[in-house]
Amino acid sequence: MLIVSVIIIIITKSSIYAQTTPSYPLLIGDTVPTFKAATSQGIMYFPGDYQGKWKILFSHPGDFTPVCTSELLEFALMQDDFNALQCELIGLSVDGYDSHMDWIASMENLEYKGHKGIQIRFPIISDVRMDISRMFGMVHPHSMSTRTVRAVYIIDPSNVVRAILYYPQTVGRNMEEIKRLLIALQAVDRYNISTPASWEPGDDIIVSSPQTKEAAEWREKASANGILRCLDWYFCFTSLP
Fold first, then answer.
1. Phi, psi dihedral angles at 108 (to 5 degrees)
2. Which CATH number is 193-241 given?
């Protein structure tokens, strides 16, 4: 009887663990687990160090590589733009701390797009054991088994993954598009809306399709009064409040 009781306890604990532990790699809608990481700016406690902030966690294949260098410099040039949106940047690669520091020092001595002395003020995680990379799905074995791809994770203040972007090794990212996506997500949360393709701040937003008779009748009246711009019964636009 003692052995049976022990087995039941183990099964029960295993079941609870499976229900409370997120699946990996992390996907849109998943909550990011807490983790500690060594970075170019010291030990990071995630998400504790970023309470109330949006986060953009991005990986690059390797230090001292040209495409990655251009990306880090672009992010550095736009860091104030992201900070103004209550968003913090966090870099990551599988290179070690010393490599990160030497690379940062090299980049800060470069002249890039007419800018000199560009400061890399965001931390870069040294994920030498690839624990964080694998948790986020930044390692794609058929692309690079020992390096991270160019991944971007936009994480909201509740620590939920809201968007994921992947880029190949040979194509650099568009930081303006990442910023646009962040602004769109913030507008979605603030106004409970959806945004159409290529939406930019100031553009009209999408009105959800009517699910009730009352909603359909309101839509018809709103369209007649010029509140909505409808291309068809299911495809309507309006301006933000």
1. -70, -10
2. 3.30.1020.10
**Sequence ranges of the chain with CATH classification 3.30.1020.10:** 193-241
Residue 67 sits at φ, ψ, to 5 deg, of: -65, -45
Whether the link from the prior residue into 25 is cis, omega within 30° of 0, is yes
Q: How far is CA 185 from CA 165, 191, 195, 221, 236, in A?
A: 14, 10, 9, 29, 20
Fold of 22-175: Glutaredoxin (3.40.30)
pLDDT tier for residue 1 given thresholds of 50, 70 and 90: very low
All residues at 6 or more sequence positions from 101 whose CB lies less than 8 Å from its CB, including other chains: 40
Residue 145 pLDDT? 78
Percent of the chain as helix, strand, coil, to the nearest 5: 35, 25, 40
CB 30 within 8 A of CB 160: yes
Q: How many residues does the chain have?
A: 241
Catalytic residues: 68
> pLDDT tens digit string along 133-178?
999 999 999 887 789 999 999 999 999 999 999 999 999 999 999 9
Q: What angle do CA 59, 96, 34 make, to 5 degrees?
A: 55
In 132-219, DSSP assigns E strands to: 150-155, 161-167, 205-207
DSSP 96-128: -HHHHHHHHHHHTT-EETTEES----S-EEE-T
Single-letter amino acid code for the residue at 72: L
- The pLDDT tens digits of the residues spanning 55-112 come to 999 999 999 999 999 999 999 999 999 999 999 999 999 999 999 999 999 999 999 9
